[in-house]
Amino acid sequence: MTKVAITGATGFVGRHVLAELASRDLGVVATRRSHSLDEPHLANVKWVNLDLSSAPGQAFEALGRPDVLIHLAWGGLPNYRSLRHFEVELPAHYAFLRQLTDAGLKSLLVAGTCLEYGLRSGALSETDPTAPVTPYGFAKDTLRRQLEYLQRESGSAFKLTWARLFFMHGEGQAPTSLLPQLKQAVERGDPVFRMSGGEQLRDYLRVSEVAKQLVELALRQEDIGTLNVCSGTPRSVRGMVEQWLRDNDWRIALDLGHYPYPDYEPMAFWGVPRKLEQLLETS
To answer: Strand locations in the chain, DSSP E?
Structure first.
């Protein structure tokens, strides 16, 4: 039986990945900083207390010597501009992952971000150069480079998949995300929902679909390298909001243009999922 460990299992993406893992014939170890009453209780999942910032020297043993690690943990979000990302998170995550690969971890999937591309517009391919403009995007991109250097230095002793995530929606989103804010406004009976002009083009996927794809990629245990986890279809933010209103039969006016567009993202960008689609076709 394949043994899979997952960090960040209590987060938005992590809970969906954990559910997908639990639905399969796998041995699963999930990490948490401390016990929580609302964590999922699943038959084939063992929970382990593990703080990445002070991980024990025998972390690989504590995780049950897994065949593959799905690394989703990351602190400091959703503040993409916080210096914490490269002052605290980056060194802690590199040290943790290096410890595991040095101890014998053979396969690693890490969640990256579309913010690694920076202000590049249009269709984004994995072959495009990265140019992050936020501390978060910079820290993630740097961690990827560090792991690639480590992999070369160690003679490819471990296989690496770097999965760049784009925009996701679904159950368990942070309350500050667009859909939860819209839902809260409707439930409060607000006459209008304040948002940006909504003309930005983005790449959206349901988080449940992202989770399934991440698990499929991780279980291949191959040296895939960097790939985009995305739909490949640009959709406007306004269009998504209007779709949510129709799907849920919500009634609320949109106050378009109330908030400025974010300056750390281009107006229009989406991912090219060709590499992802080719891999999943052969799963």
So the answer is: 3-7, 27-32, 45-49, 68-71, 107-113, 122-124, 159-165, 167-169, 192-194, 201-206, 225-229, 234-236, 253-255, 269-271
CA 16 to CA 168: how far, in whole Å? 12
Do the strands 159-165 and 192-194 form a parallel or antiparallel pair, or are they unpaired?
A: unpaired
0.90 exceeded by pTM? yes
Distance CA 187, CA 21 (A): 33
Distance between CA atoms of residues 227 and 101, nearest Å = 21
CB atoms within 10 A of CB 271: 27
Q: What are phi and psi of 211, to 5 degrees?
A: -60, -45
> 191: phi > 0 → left, psi -120 to 50 → alpha, else beta; which?
alpha
Sequence-distant (≥ 6) Cβ neighbours of residue 180 within 8 angstroms: 173, 174
Report the alpha-carbon angle 169-165-235, nearest 5: 55
d(CA 283, CA 9) in angstroms, rounded, equals 24
Q: How far apart are CA 39 and CA 46, in angstroms?
A: 12
Domain limits, the chain: 3-168+204-232+272-281, 171-201+234-255
What is the third-level CATH fold of 3-168+204-232+272-281?
A: Rossmann fold (3.40.50)
Contacts of 197 (CB under 8 A, 6+ apart): 238, 256, 257, 261
Give the model confidence (pLDDT) of 241-274 as tens digits: 999 999 999 999 999 999 999 999 999 999 999 9
